[in-house]
Amino acid sequence: MTGPEFEQFVRKLLLEHGYDDVQSTPTTGDMGADLIIQHRLKKIVVQCKRYDAPVGVSAVQEVLGAKHYYEAAEAWVITDSTFTSASIRLAKAAGVRLSALRLTPK
Known about the structure:
Elements: H1 3-16, E1 22-24, E2 35-39, E3 42-49, H2 57-69, E4 74-79, H3 85-94, E5 97-100
Helix pairs in contact: 2-3
């Protein structure tokens, strides 16, 4: 699965879990968000990372920028990998939600 395919997989998963308005951002110039969710009068920006290695702090920084740019209430990073300890610390301090999906082998 490529990065863009992973983004569409996450989008479909969110729709299946009751998030009824999930939009993809442009592939270039997305300002740090791959998906934008409108849910219960709140906007959520999502950064999707399809990685073999743990996701680092830059993903959290990117989605924080997107949160401000899109004036969102929440920011999430979703990966099929794990997160570094630094990314976990920053996410905790900044209120960013981190989620690791368990998929079939790459």
